[in-house]
Specification:
The complex is a heterodimer of chains A (about 450) and B (about 475). Chain A is built from ten helices and 30 strands. In chain A, a hairpin with a 5-residue loop joins strand 5 and strand 6. Chain A is flat. With about 475 residues, chain B is of the alpha+beta class. Chain B has three domains: about 250 residues, Thrombin, subunit H (Beta Barrel), CATH 2.40.10.120; about 100 residues, PDZ domain (Pdz3 Domain, Roll); about 100 residues, Roll (Pdz3 Domain). In chain B, the strands form six sheets. In chain B, strands 23, 24, 25, 26, 27, 28 and 29 form a seven-stranded antiparallel beta sheet that branches. In chain B, strand 7 and strand 8 form a beta hairpin. Chain B is globular and about 80 Å long. The chains are: A alpha+beta (about 450), B alpha+beta (about 475). At the A-B interface, strand 18, strand 29 and strand 30 of A face strand 16, helix 4, strand 17, strand 28 and strand 29 of B.
Chain lengths: ~450, ~475
């Protein structure tokens, strides 16, 4: 079973039911430090309305998550799957239960983190107050440490649950984990048994002194008390990067590592050195440099790497990702009995999910084919847009297009970017007429006519 | 098409009128001598699967044709064993010999042992006499065919009667009856006993089976594969009865190398003023193929072959099998003129058809029982499926993986592409076989490593032997 993203949806009926129960329970005084109280005052509920481009039209969906205020100037840390660039409206419920607007500063789906900023003008105008909390040091955690999760499970604002750190470095990579975007390749996760439910997403995992050691993010659906948080050591770097640049830039070379386990004997390696290269993405910088699946990576720019166990792989991936884009990396590689160096020039890491758009009069929603998606599907290049939805009865559906098709040409023009298809659509809107499309469906080429 | 079927209708009615009352039981007794039941085995690495098909006798040498669906196309001819032929209604059988599959008709040819010859009558005996009007059938004409019961009933023949509901080119001239009228591969006759055609594998007549032991249980949909309601007309069958394969491989096979033929959408055809005929888009022109050498390009739209515009079929998708059949009729070395639309330009391309590259069913293979794996030679079709250049295509394919065997436990799947064994690149099939044979023979070894590729991604698999 794979960990699944804690869902944003909340149930109002449960909320109403549970209020009655809560008043009957005696409050247990779990933590009373000043830091903890301040932490409680900096946790917020986040209501997000976002646009989706499904089924051939622009639609809006709403969700609830949690977040924590990090600074006096109103920065809020939450999950990328709570607030993404698709968000059109973000409302923050402060500890005082007052509601204020916020804007997205930036997001990073790879670590499932997003940064928001409160509308400070509105805060000032209305004379609102809020507290902020501090990031602690997650590297010092050990399994068994007591931690608390604070958030908005099922819309239950300001819920505190308690547990321990169950594991300090849980690896899992999920290539579609954050709303279809990749996540988990570059960091490990904290595992806790503190109760985390849908709506806790983006809320802090804290120690007794109120220091944030993690951002709660995922849980196993159907399991008991198996939840995961992004460690604060990772979050600190991402926050700094998002404040500075609005985005996190990473390097890509195209290596897919595997755990070496006890294959050292087979590969005649010293213990605790080497990463097994399971696969090399076709057409990637590493493939162009001549690397192959089955090679053993020994060192990156002279720094030895050890990838015996799956837990050790995300930091190694992160080491590569942290190199500047366009840098020349010297990879020391063992192949059979020989050891040699390969020079690989890094590229900018891109998501497999390209930009999305809806061409509403055609009832067609599309997503740009990214370089990564093209490689994954063995396309010769990244020309084209992927059909992600068609609306029944609209021209795209009537013409016979369906989800999964890749539109490669429109009116004989290659679809090199989303702009090409938007321009053709604008032409159609101005003067509706038959539009000729060429599309691929699992390698087979067909032509379609969109008719007004 | 319309005119010719109209003529068929008229002629059919005439033929029906001139004869007297036919004696069906007498006609029946003669005609069941032209059908047989054929049993065989498909031998795989670990088991023998029995096969059963019904066939029609086509000549005085005891040649029998079985419908194409009788054998799975992935099965290699050398896996087909122990052919046994039964006359209709007889428990006893005599041996048969597999001759191969014809590429145009798809028929499998089997030659029966001479001892059975006296009891058999070729179907040609019942064909309309030369010079006689075509036998039809006409629309709504009542026709009859032969079915055979199963082995436990000694393959007793039985009669099925149905009326013709539709005459259609698919692209073979076909008749679709209102219900089942013959077993696939067995003949259909008119009221005078004239041969009208051969039943094909049907569209799969389905019926609901209500559970008898479990009252109130839900009904199951079953597909009747033993009886068919569709038959190819005699003019599609009789001219091809002599296409006995020269070898079990079915070669020679002509090759064009145009991959992914997609029929032109009717709206697009209208837009391109091609709506009075058929047209197909060529998705890809294969590397090193005759089509590539002659200058055919990806996305060309084929509109004519040898100067004849492609017919317009209903449904339009039939045009693809029409082209396949036009190629199957030809031989390697034949010249074929292909007319294509490229953008708005019409271009004629002359292709010298080549020899079909080695097919998967012809590829060399070797089974390693202790490892639990059959490796197979990497062939042209693998390179096409995996989208790799022919020159880069070294390695072998895992053709069969025995469940719970060492390689299966290591995570190898059938159809995985094995690129390295023990860290050494597998350049040829022989290298792979020698390496695996050495590993299999070495009982001291505790493990070996395979680099396998699946879906464009490789993985190092560690196979534990102890």
């Amino acid at each position: 079973m794979k960990p699944t993203t804690v869902n944003l949806s909340s149930s109002r009926s449960i909320f109403a039911l549970c209020l009655g129960l809560l008043s009957l329970m005696a409050p247990a005084r779990a933590a009373v430090s000043r830091g903890f109280n301040q932490l409680l005052d900096s946790v917020v509920r986040i209501d997000v309305r976002e646009v989706t481009f499904e089924e051939g039209s622009k639609r809006f969906s709403a969700g609830i998550g949690s977040g924590v205020i990090l600074s006096a100037d109103g920065l809020i840390l939450t999950n990328a799957h709570v607030a993404s660039p698709r968000a059109v409206e973000i409302n923050i419920t402060l500890a005082s239960l007052e509601v204020v607007g916020a804007k997205l500063v930036g997001w990073d789906h790879w670590t499932d983190l997003a940064l928001l900023r409160l509308d400070l003008d509105e805060v000032k105008r209305r004379g609102l107050k809020f507290a902020h909390a501090e990031l602690g040091n997650s590297d010092k955690l050990v399994a068994g440490d007591t931690v608390f999760a604070v958030g908005t499970p099922y819309g239950l604002t300001r819920t505190v649950t308690r547990g321990i750190i169950s594991n300090t470095s849980r690896p899992f990579e999920d290539l579609t984990g954050v709303d279809g975007y990749e996540t988990g390749s570059f960091n490990t996760w904290l595992q806790t048994d503190a109760a985390i439910n849908p709506g806790n997403s983006g809320g802090p995992l804290v120690t007794e002194d109120g220091k944030i050691v993690g951002i709660n993010s995922r849980g196993y659906i159907g399991a008991d008390n198996l939840a995961f948080a992004i460690p604060s050591s990772t979050a600190r770097r991402i926050v700094d990067g998002l404040v500075r640049d609005g985005a996190i830039t990473r390097s890509y070379v195209g290596l897919r590592p595997g755990a070496l386990r006890d294959l050292e004997g087979f590969y005649a390696l010293a213990l605790n050195i080497g990463v097994l290269i399971n696969s090399v993405d076709p057409g990637s910088p590493a493939a162009r440099a001549g690397l192959r699946g089955g090679d053993i990576l020994l060192a990156i720019d002279g720094q030895k790497v050890d990838g015996r166990f799956p837990e050790q792989l995300p930091p190694i991936q992160n080491l590569i990702a942290n190199q500047p884009v366009g840098a020349a990396l010297k990879l020391m590689v063992k192949r059979g009995p020989d050891t040699r160096d390969f020079t690989v020039i890094t590229e900018k890491l891109e998501s497999r999910v390209g930009e999305e758009w809806a061409l509403e009069k055609w009832g067609l929603s599309v997503r740009k084919v990214s370089r990564s998606y093209a490689r994954e599907n063995q396309f010769s290049d990244d020309t084209g847009v992927l059909v992600i939805g068609v609306q029944p009865g609209f021209p795209a559906d009537v013409a016979g297009l369906s989800r999964g098709d890749v539109i490669t040409k429109i009116n004989q023009q290659a679809v090199g970017s989303l702009e090409v298809i938007k321009a053709a659509y604008a032409g159609y809107e101005a003067k509706p007429g038959p539009t000729l499309l060429e599309a691929l469906r699992s390698r087979r080429v067909s032509l379609y006519i969109l008719k007004p | 098409m319309k005119i010719s079927s109209l003529i068929l209708v008229i002629l059919g009615l005439t033929a029906g009128r001139v004869t007297g009352t036919p004696d069906i039981p007498a006609l029946w007794a003669e005609r069941v001598k032209s059908v047989v039941a054929v049993e065989f085995y498909v031998e795989t690495e670990t088991d023998r699967q029995p096969g059963l098909s019904y066939g029609t006798v086509v000549d005085n040498n005891g040649t029998i044709i079985l419908p194409s669906a009788a054998v799975d196309p992935r099965v290699s001819p050398d896996q087909l064993k122990d052919f046994k032929v039964h006359r209709a209604g007889e428990a006893a059988s005599v041996p048969g010999r597999y001759l191969g599959q014809d590429n145009l008709t798809g028929w499998h040819f089997v030659r029966v042992d001479a001892s059975l010859l006296p009891g058999l009558t070729p179907i040609t005996t019942f064909a309309a006499k030369a010079g006689a009007p075509a036998p039809g059938p006409a629309l709504a004409e009542e026709v009859w065919g032969i079915g055979l019961r199963n082995k436990d009933e000694d393959f007793i023949p039985y009669i099925m009667v149905a009326r013709v509901g539709l005459l259609q080119s698919l692209p073979q001239h076909s008749a679709i009856a209102l219900h089942e009228l013959a077993a696939p591969g067995l003949p259909v006759f008119n009221a005078d006993g004239v041969f009208l055609g051969l039943a094909t594998s049907s569209f799969g007549q389905s019926f609901l089976q209500f559970s008898r032991p479990d009252r109130g249980g839900s009904a199951v949909i079953l597909v009747n594969v033993e009886e068919s309601s569709v038959f190819h007309l005699a003019d599609e069958v009789l001219p091809n009865l002599g296409r006995i394969p020269a070898s079990v491989s079915g070669r020679p096979l002509a090759w064009l190398g145009a991959y992914g033929l997609e029929p032109l959408d009717p709206e697009v055809a209208q837009f391109m003023k091609l709506d009075s005929q058929g047209a197909v888009v060529v998705s890809e022109v294969l590397e090193g193929s005759p089509a590539e050498k002659a200058g055919l390009k990806d996305r060309d739209i084929i509109v004519a072959l040898d100067g004849h515009p492609l017919p317009r079929f209903k449904p339009g998708s039939v045009v693809v099998s029409y082209i396949d059949r036009e190629l199957a009729r030809r031989l390697p070395g034949d010249m074929l003129a292909v007319t294509v639309m490229r953008g708005t330009e019409r271009t004629d391309i002359k292709v010298a058809l080549g020899d079909e590259p080695k097919l998967i069913r012809e590829a060399a293979r070797k089974y390693f029982d202790r490892l639990g794996l059959t490796v197979r030679e990497f062939v042209y079709g693998d390179a096409v499926a995996l989208r790799v250049k022919i020159g880069e295509s070294t390695g072998v394919v895992a053709h069969f993986v025995k469940p719970n065997s060492p390689v299966a436990v290591a995570g190898l799947h059938a159809d995985d592409w094995i690129k390295e064994i023990d860290g050494v690149e597998v350049k040829t099939f022989d290298v792979a076989v020698n390496k695996l044979a050495a590993i299999e023979a070495d009982h001291e070894r505790s493990e070996f490593v395979i680099l396998a590729s699946r879906g464009g991604e490789t993985a190092v698999l560690r196979v534990k032997l102890k």
